[in-house]
Amino acid sequence: MMPTRIRSPPPLGDFTPLAEHQSKTPESFFDGKPILYYHAAGAKAWIPKSQRGSGLPFFPADLASDPTGPEGSALNGTADENVEQKVDLFVNSQTFTIFCPAAETGLSIPYPLISIHAIKTIGGTYKSVYLQLELSDDGNGGDDFEVVELTLIPPTSTAKEGEEEGASETTKLFRAISECSNLNPDPADQDDDDDDEDRIIFEGDHQPVEGLESVYVGASDGGLPPPLPGSSGWITAENVHEYFDADGNWIGGEDDGGVSGELGDGAGAVHGRDEEEEAVTGGANGHGAGEEGENKRVRID
């Protein structure tokens, strides 16, 4: 999952506006055009000077900073720390797309590559959306990633603190990114959850058979693998005589992994109905079973 570099802005006709999508039931939830949650032309985009050339093609390493900005002294000295570009934003249900007309290039970014997004106030006046992007440092799909800090100010934002129009536009951008991020969860996180769910891990000398889940290699002498935790051994046609006699009575084994082979008092005894009644009533007259037996009610058929 890597960002895609683009050389022209995507036509608005390639998207279905969110209002139109919400006004009717789509014929399919899997086909059709991507849903455009937010679009703005001429938004301000800033990154630190030190991050020029690191993943965003419209911020090349040799990009010169504007001597008047970003926004001059209104940002309390940040003009010396950041560089600015004007960009068009397309927040859609598939990717977060940024295009810079001046550089004639842009980037379509999968949402899982946006590790952080938040509303940020700059210089006590400007409302912006702050993003941390995990982009390949060589821009060619390598395995090494570098975090790029991108700040976006919608074109209708204002330097007047608390003005509703600027604040609401920034909120719209933030909410659009949030909703589309929820539509595109990181598949790696889902795979990890599926792999860990309901997994039982056995410890000890249990060598699994490659490619077969919960199947283990047998003993070197051709026998079965060692018993798994919680079991007391394996009973097979070859060793059944060690556990049962010729009449099928359990003879067990002292070293069979936890089963003593000795049954408790009364095990194997068969009681008839008359004996059970005698035990309950303490005899025909209710005596002979102790004080508790005297309180028992005699059964009458």
From TrEMBL:
Pfam families: Voldacs
Region named Disordered: 1-27, 253-301
Compositional bias per record (Basic and acidic residues), positions renumbered to this chain: 289-301
Biological processes per GO annotation: mRNA cis splicing, via spliceosome; spliceosomal snRNP assembly
Keywords: Cytoplasm, Nucleus
Residue stretches of biased makeup (Gly residues): 258-269
Subcellular location: Cytoplasm; Nucleus
Principal location listed in the UniProt entry: cytoplasm
A single cellular component GO annotation: cytosol
Designated name of the protein: Regulator of volume decrease after cellular swelling-domain-containing protein
